[in-house]
Amino acid sequence: MEKVAFLSVYHKEGIEKFAKNLVDLGWKIMSSSGTANYLKERKIETMDLATLVGEPILGHRVVSLSREFYAMLLSRSDNEEDMAELKKLKLPMISLVYCDMYPLSEEIKKNKGEEKRGFDAIIEKTDIGGPTMLRAAGKGGRIVLADATDQKKVIEWLKNGMPEADNFKRELAGKAEFIVAKYCMDSANYLSAGKYQGIFGEKTSDCCYGENAYQAPSAVYQTRESLFAPDKFKLLTETPLSYNNFCDRDKVMQTITHISAGFELNFNKRAPYIAIAVKHGNACGVGLGPKPMDALMKMIEGDVRAIHGGSVFTNFKIDEEEAETLIHYRMKPDLRRLLDTVTAPDFSNSAIEILARKKGKCRIVVNNNLANISHGDLDNKERVRFIRDGFLTQPNYTFVPNLKEAVIEGDKKLYEKENIMSDLILAWAIGCTSNSNTITIVKDGKLLGNGVGQQDRVGAAKLAISRADDASVSLGLSSKADLSGAVVYSDSFFPFPDGPKVLIDRGIKIIFTTSGSVNDKEVIESCKAQGATLVMFPDKIARGFAWH
């Protein structure tokens, strides 16, 4: 039986090479008129579908939507009646279909907000024949491609004698159904003005376990391509990442991109070296420094106790010296620090050996894009959270404060120092990406205390101070941390003067907060009377509540 491939693509890049490879393997090419003409112009013999099913009608709107075409796709090679009928109709059986669809989602994005012109353009870019033929080809057990990246894989598989053909074709058919389903969901969402929504992802890996060891199986699904999508992080060690490892990464990526965006906007330069330790989704140690070692030591000193068993992320390469610092700095000589994951742009071989634990339990992950994070890497995509029998959606938090636009209540001289402004940006970036309510204390590029997830702002302030004091004790210093010269970030306004008073009583004089409380005037006057300066933005644009 002759081998016939049907090719019909909107994007023509690469189709010539794919068609020629098929011809070299003994396949005949059939195409719709647009693709047929394109291939014929490039000296590739191609049969136009119209010669078998009749000329297109209604312009180009009805081309492949014919019963003859679908007989070629749905006929069964092991069914004598099907084969006899194809022969009677003088139709070949199509064994391979490659179709990409009209760029509907791109058209929706391009015409967003232009209702009349946008609607007409979007209807014209709504493909009917493409999704139908892909689904029919899958049902008919054909080789079906809906993604240009699969061209090379299919050619190599054909050259190798088509091993495990059923599984290979089913995988391709499943991918085609997925692409079609997502395509149709884009259309449904647009036509319904957002009433219908769906979440689509491709599995990239299994997790070692869930949040708790018994919550298995768990898996990771990728929804789109980006520099920081799951498939861009490569695991270098044996033990798979767990569910909460991925959750921690998601939180830290928010934090590290906000730090970078804040520095670019306010100081017109890239952030210095950044090291972040996270435990259960919240930063427990953060350090900025002119050298990697400075950042790592500050991060560790921020909370020597909490970092144990935590996850570390950096925007710089981990070499032997950095690895030794992670494992041994501020540890007793006969002990080593246990870390759950370390993620960085790169690792030397010696660093991997130093960090490794038995059976690869310290997960070492690399993504070289971490070395070049910029303002443009802020995640501006919609956030989704599942609730019982449904899910919530909302825009992501992408506010970045320009400190020059802040309202300053108090002594501006305390505020207008670059090290203070740098600490304010760091405190903001940590606090606005931690579980609210949050009070965050930073000094000299180091997180001293992160009071997260509290029901009231006084409690958050007390917790932040308590964590700073505990860290001081762990370092063998005073039972009370030296908070003079430190700055504070509050992820929303103070409803009463009692919260700031807790902080001011410990020597803190600079507080980044929002305005919007009915008691703003009372809070401001109280802080001024105690010698403190408030750096304020309106709550409606700057509130940093996260991760309820």
Overview of the molecule:
There is one protein chain. Helices cover 39% and strands 18% of the residues. With 548 residues, the protein is α/β, with parallel strands linked by helices. The strands form 5 sheets. Strands 8-13-12-11-9-10 form a 6-stranded mixed beta sheet.
Helix percentage range: 25-40%
Mean pLDDT: 94
Largest sheet strand order: 8-13-12-11-9-10
Task: List the quaternary state of the chains.
Answer: single chain
Output the radius of gyration.
30 Å
Report how far the terminal alpha carbons are from each other.
62 Å
- Residue stretches low in confidence (pLDDT < 50, at least 5 long) are none
CATH architecture of the largest domain: 3-Layer(aba) Sandwich
CATH class of the largest domain: Alpha Beta
* Proportion of strand residues: 15-25%
Total count of strands: 21
SS-based structural class?
alpha/beta
- Overall 3D geometry? elongated
Number of domains: 3
Helix count equals 20
Largest sheet: 6 strands, mixed
At the third CATH level, what is the topology name of the largest domain? Rossmann fold
CATH superfamily of the largest domain: Methylglyoxal synthase-like domain
